[in-house]
Amino acid sequence: MSRGFPRIITQLPEADVKFEGVRGWILQGEDHQIVFFEIEAKSEVSEHSHDAQWGIVVDGKMELAIEGRARVYGKGDEYFIPAQAKHSAKFLTKCKVIDFFSDKTRYKPKRKS
């Protein structure tokens, strides 16, 4: 398992993520977002839906269920979640993933304390 994302990524605005054990940093585009996620092992993202999402596993293993079909994804695996498709995830190991969201406001930056 590699270390976390480098400082060039973690200096981006941190995403206000509501799932325990999940941190992310937002690269904001005019009509999309790219989020660099670090997720602790055994974390879970409950079933939800939103606009289209494409992602790639940078490191680790996760189980992703899209419309009730579960598959394990590992380093180098890509996935696509169509708009409004119900999906959930379980993280089998510590993971790093990069997700592209077609919704430019999928995540808001965390407010600074």
What does this structure look like?
The chain is mostly beta strands and 113 residues long. The chain has one domain: Sandwich (Jelly Rolls), CATH 2.60.120. The chain has one helix and nine strands, in the order αβββββββββ. The strands form two sheets. It has a five-stranded antiparallel beta sheet with strand order 1-2-9-4-7, with no helix packed on it. A four-stranded antiparallel beta sheet has the order 3-8-5-6, with no helix packed on it. A hairpin with a 4-residue loop joins strand 1 and strand 2. The longest helix has 4 residues, at 7-10. The chain is globular and about 40 Å long. The protein starts with 6 loop residues before the first helix and ends in a 12-residue tail after the last strand.
User: For the CA atoms, what is the radius of gyration?
Assistant: 13 Å
CATH superfamily: Jelly Rolls
Distance between the termini: 31 Å
Strand line-up across the major sheet: 1-2-9-4-7
Give the number of domains: 1
Which CATH architecture would you pick?
Sandwich
Query: What is the number of strand segments?
Result: 9
Helical content, roughly?
Answer: under 10%
Please describe the biggest sheet, giving its number of strands, its sense, and whether it closes into a barrel: 5 strands, antiparallel
Structural class: mainly beta
**Low-pLDDT residue spans:** none
The level-1 CATH class: Mainly Beta
Shape estimate: globular
Roughly what fraction of the amino acids lie in strands?
Answer: over 45%
Overall average pLDDT: 95
Order of helices and strands: HEEEEEEEEE
The number of helices is: 1
Task: State the CATH topology.
Answer: Jelly Rolls
